[in-house]
Amino acid sequence: MSVSSRSVSSGKWSPPPDVSDIVKRIHAMLHPRNIVLVGATDKPGNYAERIWNNLIKYQYEGGLYPVNAKRETIWGVPCYKDFSSLPEKPDHVLVLVPARFAVQVIRDAAAAGARSATIVTSGFSELQDAESQKLAVELQQAIRETGLAVTGPNCLGNLSAGEKLFTNIDDRIVTMEAGSVAIAGQSGAIVMAIRQALEDRGVGVGYMVTTGNEAGLETPDLMTYFAADPSIRVIVVYLEGVRNTKVFREACKAARAAGKPVIALKLGASEGGRAAAMAHTGALAGSIETFDAISTREGVIRVRGLDELIETTECFVHSEPPKGGRLAAVTLSGGKRGLLIDAFYSAGLNFAPLGQSASEKLAKMLGPGSIVGNPLDAGFAAVVDPSVYMQSIKIMIDDPDTDIVIIDSELPKAPHELRERSLRAVNEMAGHANKPVIYISAMSIGFTEFTKGLRKSLPNIAVLQGMDRAVGAIKSLIEYTSLRKEVPDIVSSSSASARALLERALKSAKGAALDEVASKKLLRAYGIPVSREEVTRSAAGAVKIAKKIGFPVVAKAVSADILHKSDIGGVVLNLNSAAEVRQAFSDITARVTKLRNKPKLEGILIAQQVKADLELVVGASLDAEMGPVVLFGTGGVDIELIKDVALSGAPLDAAEARQLIGRTKAGVKIKGYRGKPALHEASAVRALVGLSNLMADAGNRIASIDVNPFLINAKTGVAVDALIVLNNAAARSAAGH
């Protein structure tokens, strides 16, 4: 189906009765019967006047009522003293009074029958003084108690194009069309800039909501609404933080189920994301990496900047989901052909061989001696016969062995009959094709007014600018299409006995972490393979344990106060005799005794030395924003240097664990690399599932789990070292301390 043949509603959609309450409340806000401006003033340049002028300019069709107790008229219309003097019940209220009066306005508005409000006023939680913080708490309480749908405070207003509603201060021209993109985010300036850039590219924006401090509605609430509205095709969000992980993930799932990508610009790593840095996993799982791990599998496409956001949005708005990732391209330049190959190859994408039929048609058309490749350089042949270019594009589009057709060209800045005719012909072909047709310019080209008008007349093709950004957008399109439409809810599969042991371990914990013995006992209960080992307080006991396990063995210090034993000489490997075990016991004890922080030595652990073909790290971390995440990769002492790791949200099932493993170089080795035998992947899968169950059961009481190394060979895999770092405040609270 062509892009142009899709039905886009006029913005008059009404939610069905079975949708959530949040969707109904937001619908009331974006489709109000009237708008009341409380704090109306005609002081030149103030926000109230600018918003009023926009509502008049774009001919909002509902009632418009300014309220100011000190004025009888304003802007040439009657001005009302309060809600009770209005000619009808208020519906949507714009709060423009000083912060100290805003809370009462919200309560009075609800009492008068209003359903929603936008608080433009600032002076709440964005300020650090006690009075502002107190007002913020009171405002949140008023919003909860009244049930109003509220955006703000400290925001710049909203756009609902189908209603010709623009309660925003932006003075730039807005095309009031019910476009297929919806935008929401905390920063009014950034959200407004995104809307303007998309409009300049001919992409219609149906909704734009600035959420400000989010005392009421948060960005994920808007995502849920946009997922339900049939007029919206692409959801764009700017996120400064995720306050409620569950609500955010539910919103992502709603968008995913509706087939609507969420394109997110997310602020970077936060200190909270590094809270678990005592373990390797905490250091490696930064905030932005954790956000990606959890949100990507639920249909979120995170972009790195505003330019990338615009190209990605353009790509999704004008492209049908491709059947696969088989790329084909047509260019008129050998140099551009090389740029295309390099750019897509660097992104992990390649141009597949053309189908036999397409190859034969191109060879016949181009003539003897011509090179038929993909990308196709039709430049030389087109000099002799200009029609070759258009015929080449048609053959590529018609080829059943291609999924996406890329054309190396940009839009003209001024009228050009030949290029315009070619563009309209390709747009017509794309309208009948069952695949995306995408124009790429190697560099960003400024759009003139002519270009903007021409672009809007070509709805069936995407027009991307800048090679690298274009490649990233196309890769996102392919990856999003390959995702499952719905992500099933995965719950912990742990046993009752494992959960009981977890509660006892957390309740009895004294320090910042569990020692190795306690950590491994908990891991074993959650199905994670652990090496044979015992702890002892005497050299004679160490020898006895070593003989029972069988040489060679390893000796390690046991102390919850020592997080990384190898750093202080607390690990001795390759002990092959009783004498070596006695010496290791003595050496480790002496080294720990000399440490300045005087750690408590619980004993010496004598453990089976496992023959390993590969050292892995498996771990988990609790992110301050996104919750628990599981990590897998290449382990050992150089883990932070190598950084061959991948992350996934928790809990996960065995299938997702295998996918996680497959995203690393370690995963390639496990499958059998360069003729070497495959390693015991099942043990790594068990470890990942067990860790994810453990994190899910612990809630927020475990900050991180570090299993490094997890040794694996062809027959087995075992955890030979483990560290569980506690989120002590949460653990003590749950235990009743």
Note the topology.
Elements: H1 21-30, E1 34-38, H2 47-57, E2 63-67, E3 73-74, E4 77-78, E5 92-95, H3 99-111, E6 116-119, H4 130-146, E7 149-151, E8 158-160, E9 165-166, E10 181-185, H5 188-200, E11 205-210, H6 219-228, E12 234-239, H7 245-257, E13 262-266, H8 280-284, H9 287-295, E14 300-303, H10 306-317, E15 327-331, H11 334-346, H12 356-366, E16 376-377, H13 379-384, H14 387-398, E17 404-408, H15 417-432, E18 437-441, H16 449-456, E19 462-465, H17 467-482, H18 496-508, E20 513-514, H19 516-525, E21 533-536, H20 539-549, E22 553-558, E23 571-575, H21 578-593, E24 603-608, E25 614-623, E26 627-634, H22 639-642, E27 645-649, H23 654-662, H24 665-670, H25 681-698, E28 702-712, E29 717-719, E30 723-726, H26 728-735
Parallel strand pairs: 1-2, 1-5, 5-6, 6-7, 10-11, 10-12, 12-13, 13-14, 15-16, 15-17, 17-18, 18-19
Antiparallel strand pairs: 3-4, 8-9, 8-11, 20-30, 21-24, 22-23, 22-24, 25-26, 25-28, 26-27, 28-29, 28-30
